[in-house]
Amino acid sequence: MIGVLQFPGSCDERDALSACERVGDSRLVWHEETDLGGIDAVVVPGGFSYGDYLRAGAIARFSPAMEAVARFAGEGGPVLGICNGFQVLCEAGLLPGALLPNEDLRFVCRQVDLVAERADSVFTREIEPGSTLSVPIKHMSGRYFAPDDELDALEAGGRVAFRYAPGHNPNGSVRDIAGVVNEGGNVLGLMPHPEHAVDPLTGSADGLRLFESLVRSRVAAAA
Amino acid sequence: MKAKVLIRPKQGILDPQGKAVERALPALGFEGVSDVRVGRLVELETDDLDSLPALCEKLLANPLIEDFEIVTDDAAASNGSG
After folding, report:
1. Which residues, in sequence order, are CB contacts of B32 under 8 Å at separation 6+?
2. Cys-Cys link to A181, which of A50, A121, A211, B62 (CB 3.0-4.6 A)?
């Protein structure tokens, strides 16, 4: 069962749920839930949790469900944070770095090319390193930042999962970073929206590969 | 006791809001203004001043990208470099 978090102000939880349902059983998890029993993967979706007051993701991080998610991630449970979900995971300290307002201060909404860098996280196992995915972005605060020594460590550890393809960096993210994984490879955050790219009808089904990777990883783990 | 928390983008971090403000000033006839940085001000009332730095580090500021400064009524100020 994949659990998709829902905060007041979330807006992509339905698309995330729909993407998850293409690969397995899924349900929404309300932000006040504290028991993740029966859930074996979590998606923290996009939107504007708690109005994004103070900083994007700053308040959501303290919600009862997120405290349960932090424990779940600490036990090795797979957690995928998309857009606002990525911001929440960074604020919660489950992923390194922070997301700053876009360099040009504009809300950007467009299709971008991503280059996959890492193949051994639970969400990218089915994605060939070096391959390109076409996925939409839509955000105001997506400029990934971390201090240089942290970035060097991320790169040395193979923890940069996705970079914007040359010329596609929409927000001034440092080193073109679009998504990173934690040390255990079980938590991934990215600004682009794979859940909006799961059907050729909307221009690309490349995003579905993240959800397929997750399910195949679980099958592999159970075997 | 009333307190104010000043939150600023860390030095070295690009502040596009500050840049936008700076670029707008010459059009209004204000010349020679540079290094504009835009932060936040949080005003609050608390019985527990001692816990304020922890509160700032945990919620009001993100120490990775922001510095904070606590200003209280009795002008005793403390700095948090994060």
Report:
1. none
2. A121
Find the angle CA(B58)-CA(B64)-CA(B69) to the nearest 5 degrees: 65
Q: Which three-class secondary structure state does DSSP give residue A24?
A: coil
Task: Show Cβ contacts of residue A171 under 8 Å, excluding neighbours closer than 6 positions.
Answer: A102, A103, A104, A108, A137, A139, A142, A143, A144, A191
Domain B2-80 class in CATH: alpha beta
Domain ranges of chain B: 2-80
Search chain A and give the residue with CA nearest B42: A54
Chain A: closest CA distance from residue B67 (Å): 14
Domain A2-222 belongs to what architecture?
A: 3-Layer(aba) Sandwich (3.40)
Which residues are bridge partners to B62 per DSSP?
none
Which chain A residues have a beta carbon less than 8 Å from that of B56? none
Q: What is the CA radius of gyration of chain B?
A: 15
pLDDT digits (tens, 9 = 90+) for A47-99: 999 999 999 999 999 999 999 999 999 999 999 999 999 999 999 999 999 99
Among B22, B42, B65, pick the best mutation site for testing chain A contact (most A Cβ within 10 A): B65
Is the ipTM of this structure higher than 0.90? no
Separation between Cα atoms, residue A148 and residue A152, nearest integer Å? 6
